[in-house]
Predict the structure.
Amino acid sequence: MIIWRGWGILPLIFAVLGLVAGLVAADHAGLVAPRGVGASAGNDFANPYVAIALLVMALVNWLLGRRLNDALDRREGSPRGVVDDQERGYLRHSLAHVRFEYWSVPMVLGAAVAFAGFVGR
């Protein structure tokens, strides 16, 4: 069973890259708790670097998703939103039947949670 269509896997990859980039930046800034015997189990995801990286990846995801899915409309020659995707006979670039660019919303919410967790420490 395929859960993505076209380039729909990219939002998942963008989210993982944002988390990894944010954690690497936080590690270099000294915000990540040291690991070892007796180390506290802090929440490494709650820092501003993860929030900024997720926001950047959400912006990239939105812009790329709009560009990819709008290209389908231009190729069809119809204005946006006139005909349903199912009526056209294809599905757009999507992940779990959600359009590519709409996955930016969970990324922004994740950034808000990461920043709120950092402020609430």
User: Anything to note?
Assistant: The chain has a mean pLDDT of 80. The helical segments are 10-29, 48-76, 85-88, 104-119. The radius of gyration is 18 Å.
